[in-house]
Amino acid sequence: MSGQDDGYSFILEDLRVLSVRGDANADSSDPAIMWDATYYDASDETGRDPKTRVLIATLHVHAPLGWANVIVGGLITPVSNNSVELSEEATTREIADSIALETLYDFARIQMKSVVGTVNVDVDLPYKSPDPTVRYSDGTDADAED
């Protein structure tokens, strides 16, 4: 789902909504939209390609009248026309620039429309994702998000 100049692309599958939350009339700061993603090694129990990663992403919206969060996830597998293994740093950059992550944003954005409508928060969600923050986690407590 991502065409990259160096031959790397990704297959994104098994998309899921993991959490939706929102609150109206919360003490909210200036309007903001944040798009963050973390990827992990998939367990050996998946029976999938060993390069498959679990990708979890959060779309967070602040607006004058409230906030909303949507957490989505899926499995992402690199596909390459060359045999060069990417470092974690290079993999992180490739995921951040991928159409696969943009597709996951589209999935989250559709869910977010329902949340902001329910809590009556007026926000204009862009069709193109905001610049993502992407990181790798090995699953230890030191990597856990707040």
Name of the top-level CATH class? Alpha Beta
> Beta fraction of the residues?
35-45%
| Second-tier CATH architecture | Roll
Q: Note the main sheet.
A: 5 strands, mixed
Give the SSE order as H and E letters: EEEEHHE
Largest sheet, order of strands side by side? 1-4-3-2-5
CATH topology: Bacterial Protein-export protein SecB
Radius of gyration: 16 Å
Whole-number total of structural domains: 1
Beta strand count? 5
Q: What's the mean pLDDT score?
A: 82
The percent range for helix content is: 10-25%
The CATH superfamily appears as SecB-like
How many DSSP H or I helices? 2
End-to-end C-alpha gap: 30 Å
Shape: elongated
| Structure classification | alpha+beta
Return residue spans where pLDDT drops below 50 for at least 5 consecutive residues: 1-5
Overview of the molecule:
- The protein has a single domain, classed as Roll (Bacterial Protein-export protein SecB).
- It is 20% helix and 39% strand.
- The protein has 2 helices and 5 strands.
- It has a 5-stranded mixed β-sheet with strand order 1-4-3-2-5.
- 29% of the residues are buried.
Summarize, please.
The chain is α+β, with helices and mostly antiparallel strands. The protein is 20% helix and 39% strand.
Notable characteristics:
146 residues; alpha+beta; Bacterial Protein-export protein SecB; 5-stranded mixed sheet; 2 helices; 39% strand; disordered N terminus
